[in-house]
Specification:
CATH architecture: 3-Layer(aba) Sandwich
Number of helices: 13
Strand order of the largest sheet: 2-1-4-7
Largest sheet: 4 strands, parallel
Order of helices and strands: HEHEHEHHEHEEEHHHEEHEHHH
Strand content: 5-15%
Helix content: 25-40%
Structural class: alpha/beta
CATH class: Alpha Beta
Number of domains: 1
Number of strands: 10
Oligomer: single chain
Bound molecules: iron/sulfur cluster
CATH topology: Rossmann fold
Length: 376
C-alpha cells in the first residue's frame, strides 16, 4: 500500500453491481482456485478453511446468471500446455518451456528478459481461456449474442485486472474477460449484500464450464501448475496410467526448487521459483548457461496465488500461506478425478467445438504471444 495514498487500489465492485442490475446483460462469473482456501478469513473463519461450496452458493445469492469455476479453465490450460510441452520435447522445440499463467510474471519477463521471449508457453492463463470459451462455445450453446455476455473473474490477484486488458488477449471490442475483482472486493460485495457467508449451505458450480479435477485445484499453489502438467504429460508421453499423482519433489515452499521426473526413458528436469527475486535468479542462471531445465514454473507471489495481492491480507505470515496450501492439497486429494485430461466437460468441449488439443482452433482461441518491452 502506498504510504502517501498517492496510489490506491482499483476497485471495480461498482462496475460489477451495474452489470448485475442490467437486465439486458447475461452476467457469468468464475472464481480462481486460490479463492476457496482464503476467502473464509474475510468472514472470521480460520486460515485454510476450504469453502468451495459456500463460494458457489454465495455467487448465486448475488444474482449471477451462471456460476462457474476457473478450475475448468485450468484443466483446459493443462490440455494445451501439456500438448505444447510434448510437442517441444518431440520436435526439438525451445526448452525450457515456462508456464505463462501469472500476468505479473509475464509483464516482468517482457521488460527484463526480452531476449528469452521464445521460452514461455503460448497458453493464455486459465481465466482468459475461460473467457474465450464463454464468448464462443458457451454463447452458441445457450443462444446468446456474445456482446450481451459479461464475464466477471474473481481472482486472488491485482495483476489480472491489467492482464484482462492486454491487447494480445482481447478481440476487438469483445474482451474475453470483461471485469476482474479480487477476493477482497468480492468479500466487500457479499458484505454490502448482507450475505451470511459463513452459514451458507454448500452448492455446486453450474454445468458446462463448471467441472474440475484435482490437477486444476493445485494451480493455486507454487509448484501446482507444473505438477498438473506433469500428470497429463506423463500419461500422454508414456501411454501408461500414472498411479501416484502426487509429485512430492515439486512441492514445498523453498523459493527455488529443482526436481527430476522420470517420464518413460526421458528424465525431465523441472525448475520452480516463486517471488520475483527468485525468478530473476533462476532466469539469469539460464541466460548464463549455468542451469538447464526442460520446464519451469514461475509465480510472482510468495507461495503462488494463495499468497496473491488480492487475497485477504496475510502481512507476509507464511504460516497462513502454508495453511491455505494444505487446504489446496486436501481439495485435490478429495477429487474423484485428479488429471486434467479426465475432465469430461473439457473433453466434450474439444469434441464438439475445439477439435484437437493444440490444434488450429485451440491456437486461435487459447494461445497468445508476448511483446518485448523497454527495460525499466
Ligand atoms: Fe497473480 Fe500472484 Fe497468482 Fe501471479 S502468483 S497470478 S501475480 S496472484
Amino acid at each position: 500500500v502506498c504510504p502517501t495514498a498517492a496510489l490506491t487500489e482499483l476497485n471495480h465492485t461498482d462496475k460489477v453491481w451495474r452489470v448485475l442490475n442490467d437486465p439486458k446483460k447475461h452476467v457469468i462469473v468464475q472464481v480462481a482456485p486460490a479463492i476457496r482456501v482464503a476467502i473464509g478469513e474475510m468472514f472470521d473463519m480460520e486460515p485454510g478453511s476450504l469453502v468451495t461450496g459456500k463460494l458457489a452458493a454465495s455467487l448465486r445469492r448475488l444474482g449471477f446468471d451462471g456460476v462457474y469455476d476457473t478450475d475448468f479453465g485450468a484443466d483446459l490450460t493443462i490440455m494445451e500446455e501439456a500438448s505444447e510441452l510434448a510437442h517441444r520435447l518431440q520436435h526439438d522445440g525451445t526448452l525450457p518451456m515456462l508456464t505463462s499463467c501469472c500476468p505479473a510474471w509475464v509483464k516482468f519477463f517482457e521488460h527484463q528478459f526480452p531476449d528469452l521471449l521464445d521460452i514461455p508457453s503460448t497458453c493464455k492463463s486459465p481465466h482468459i481461456m475461460f473467457g474465450a470459451i464463454a464468448k464462443t462455445y458457451y454463447a452458441q450453446k445457450i443462444g446468446i449474442d456474445p456482446k450481451d455476455i459479461v464475464v466477471v473473474s474473481v481472482m486472488p490477484c491485482v495483476a489480472k485486472k491489467a492482464e484482462a486488458k492486454r491487447p494480445e488477449l482481447t478481440k476487438g471490442d469483445n474482451d474475453n474477460v470483461d471485469l476482474v475483482i479480487t477476493t477482497r472486493e468480492y468479500s466487500q460485495m457479499l458484505k454490502e449484500a448482507g450475505v451470511d457467508f459463513k452459514n451458507l449451505k454448500d452448492e455446486e458450480f453450474d454445468k458446462l464450464l463448471g467441472e474440475s479435477t484435482g490437477a486444476s485445484v493445485i494451480f493455486g499453489t507454487t509448484g501446482g501448475v507444473i505438477e498438473a502438467a506433469t500428470r497429463t504429460a506423463y500419461e500422454w508421453l508414456t501411454g501408461e496410467e500414472l498411479e501416484n499423482v502426487e509429485f512430492e519433489a515439486l512441492r514445498g515452499m523453498d523459493g527455488i526448487r529443482e526436481a527430476e521426473v522420470q517420464i518413460g526413458d526421458k528424465s525431465l528436469k523441472i525448475g520452480i521459483a516463486h517471488g520475483l527475486g527468485n525468478a530473476r535468479a533462476m532466469l539469469e542462471s539460464i541466460q548464463k548457461g549455468e542451469s538447464k531445465y526442460d520446464a519451469i514454473e514461475i509465480m510472482a507471489c510468495p507461495g503462488g496465488c494463495i499468497g496473491g495481492g488480492g487475497q485477504p491480507y496475510h502481512h507476509g505470515d507464511m504460516e497462513i500461506i502454508k495453511k491455505r496450501q494444505k487446504a489446496i492439497y486436501s481439495e485435490d486429494r478429495n477429487k474423484k478425478k485428479r488429471k486434467s485430461h479426465e475432465n469430461q466437460e473439457v473433453l466434450k468441449l474439444y469434441k464438439e467445438f475445439l477439435g484437437e488439443p493444440y490444434g488450429e482452433k485451440a491456437h486461435e482461441l487459447l494461445h497468445t504471444y508476448y511483446t518485448p518491452k523497454e527495460k525499466i
